[in-house]
Amino acid sequence: MLRHKVCRGIFGISQGSIATYSPTCPQLLHSNLAIKSLYPKRSAQTRQFSHTTTNKMTLQDPKGDYVNVASLRVNRGLYQFVENEVAPNTGVDVAHFWECLSNVVSKMAPRNEELLKKRDSLQKQIDEWHLARKGQEYDAAEYKQYLMDIGYLLPEGEAFKVTTSNVDPEIASIAGPQLVVPINNARYALNACNGRWQSLFDGLYGTNAVSETGGAQKAGGFNPRRALKVFEWVDNLLDEVMPLADGASWAQTKAFSVESEKLCIELTDGKKVAPKEDSVFAGYLGDAAKPTSVLIKNNNLHMELKFNADGAVGAEHHAHINDIQIESAITAIMDCEDSVTAVDAEDKVAVYKNWTGLMRGTLSASFQKGGKTLERVQNSDRVFKSPGGSEDVSLKGRSLLLVRNVGMHMYTDAVTTAGGDDIPEGFLDAFVTILAAIHDVKGNGKYANSVNGSVYIVKPKQHGPEEVAFTCELFTAVEQALDLPKNTVKIGVMDEERRTTINLYECIREAKERIVFINTGFLDRMGDEIHTSIEAGPVVALKNLRKVKWLPAYEAWNVDCGIAAGLVGTAQIGKGMWAAPDSMAEMLEQKIGHLKQGANTSWVPSPIAASLHVTHYHRVNVQETQEALKSRLRAPLDDILTPPLTDRADLNPEDVQKDLEAMAQSILGYVVRWIDMGVGCSKVPDIHNIGLMEDRATLRISSQHLANWLHHEIITKDQIKSAFEKMAAVVDEQNSSDPAYKAMVGTFEDNIAFQGALQLVFKGREVSNGYTEPVLHASRRKYKATNRN
Ligand SMILES: CC(=O)SCCNC(=O)CCNC(=O)[C@H](O)C(C)(C)COP(=O)(O)OP(=O)(O)OC[C@H]1O[C@@H](n2cnc3c(N)ncnc32)[C@H](O)[C@@H]1OP(=O)(O)O
Ligand SMILES: O=CC(=O)O
Ligand SMILES: [Mg+2]
């Protein structure tokens, strides 16, 4: 095995990249361009791999084969993929496509670099301000003035409203869950697309949403007692959100029929009632006298009650409802960013392949489950009879798909300039993902994604209005190149960097013709918060991380800016991820808060979570909430600007050690799978064995947290190393049943993942904005290079 044999500098694919991380060259580290320089010109070393999976690498072309086209060098595998799988039937000539990308690179790449340099320069000035005031009381007014003076906090212009057009109803008028999925996993991506409809019974039965007390345990086959609890839960929900006339309860229902275009419900005592509101009844299937399905509707969201007295579940239900299919993931984000590992051309092709497959309706995934081979494809639409029985009611069977491109700080060698420089990866993402979406825009695909002919791109990690304007300029350039009408491409702006938050209204203005969402990506935002104020002092302990002043103010401010800019009725005001995929009871209790705060969508990690979270949108009328918030004063900026710091005396060593170990464990649990297996989003059991979703954003928080404590000498380097070694054993144990997993214990010095995890902390202060990609990408590339066989 070749593993661990290459150079000792843990990041090096080549000597060039080791130099980038040399501790003797810290100025290189604290540069957004460090990510770019991690990918040195390596035309002689670049390898092209097969595209079968991200984990299996077949060396196809040891010379690192590029096609020279326009003024670019395009990885041959990528070139062929675009030519053979993306471009056909789009009306776009391949040579023209690369020519246009080449022009955009020549014209816009220098500004991409300038914008990154500006991030570094502002950070440097903030660092200097804090250093100059070491030991002094924090002066909020002086700080704010300084941020204005250096152009970090910008003045706001006149009031305006967004004018985005051709927005699909899933975004403009249906409030509901937004699912996020790593696009490079076809099985999950298809599942997310089909997550539009889910079984509510399964969601409740299979999770902790319904307690196991009173003999209602999950284990050991179908449990009728548990089923009764599920029915009770659903009856209570329906009583609340779609009440029946005459004070009747859904718990009393016995049989359903359709009479004179209305739903007629027979109760257990023989009485007949209808829903209180006629509009609840939306359609049915089967005979009017004894439908097989009844479609009900509330707050623009549907549920299909499916009857079968002979079904295992239906036999137990008081009205023989065998299942309830609930409209769940109204939109889904296909993620090319923080939940995937895509470190080279091979990985990028895998990412683009799945998105193209979804846009063409050809994606399929075959996998083993429950001893069977299953084949998953996109679902068709659902068709019902109208209440009168004479017409069809057709409902989308799939979530509206958005695609998250990478941020501006990423560079790729999948395409380089003629001189061998890596190009901004976001440029490539925009060109390829939009080209693929033309299949949908032109109606070539098997299914319609956007019925209004829009392409939805989520842009992460932008810092302030200038960068948003830059992205919009990029989208305009792609539209022109691909002959798409102006503003076909819509933008979702992640509000996840501090400079975007505090200038959010101006960010929205820059995108006012194409914006379709703002979303509080509070995980990245927390990482950026810690990094930005690293010189100000030690950050609070873990238990207080969410109790800090800036966080609720940021959440409220985002809603306030969105409402003020006229997003209501046009775009989403979204809230962040529920990062505990197995804790559904807790999610049901807490995530309704997002709607009450004025959000019309919020992120969920799985289709099951979507099926439960959607019940919140049945309970809360978001339009009314947003209307009521229109008159509120904007949340205080001073609170948002307050750094999340604590007195070092408040950090007692025992608690610090516990936090250190908890963070070491989550970092290692995530990083080892990222580097060794190419898994970009993992469920990692925390110290209490609760599975938590970890992605690059949660990694950014933990690594920045520890980097801050190291910098302020709350913990030492040795202490960190010991904690990581101790926790490596825990992580090894947690993964011991996975045959593909390689243990870290016993290999610390040479283990790329282990060393990478440590460097995320040790270099956390220097790396621009606390991003994790430089270390992750270099480590993964090194792992791939050393484990190729
Ligand atoms: C800060 C941010 O940027 S957040 C955005 C990035 N994060 C994400 O995208 C989170 C996406 N979620 C996930 O990747 C996963 O849910 C994880 C990694 C958290 C957990 O994955 P697992 O441990 O495999 O989940 P688990 O075993 O509980 O469930 C697997 C089943 O759920 C499905 N599933 C889980 N997550 C998703 C998802 N996001 N989309 C679609 N299906 C999903 C799988 O398809 C699988 O079902 P199948 O066997 O029928 O195919
Ligand atoms: O992208 C989401 C986040 O929270 O970060
Ligand atoms: Mg993020």
UniProtKB/TrEMBL annotation:
Any one GO BP annotation for this protein: tricarboxylic acid cycle
Residue ranges annotated for the Malate synthase N-terminal domain, each copy included: 78-136
Reactions performed catalytically: glyoxylate + acetyl-CoA + H2O = (S)-malate + CoA + H(+)
Domain of life: Eukaryota
Signal sequence region: none
Any GO molecular function: magnesium ion binding
UniProt-listed InterPro entries: Malate_synth_C_sf, Malate_synth_sf, Malate_synthase_TIM, Malate_synthG, MS_C, MS_N, MS_N_TIM-barrel_dom, MSG_insertion
Pfam families: MS_C (PF20659), MS_N (PF20656), MS_TIM-barrel (PF01274), MSG_insertion (PF20658)
Domain Malate synthase C-terminal: start-end pairs: 656-752
Domain Malate synthase TIM barrel, residue spans: 401-635
Annotated catalytic residues: 404 (proton acceptor), 695 (proton donor)
Residue span(s) of domain Malate synthase G alpha-beta insertion: 222-298
Protein name: Malate synthase G
Organism: Sphaeroforma arctica JP610
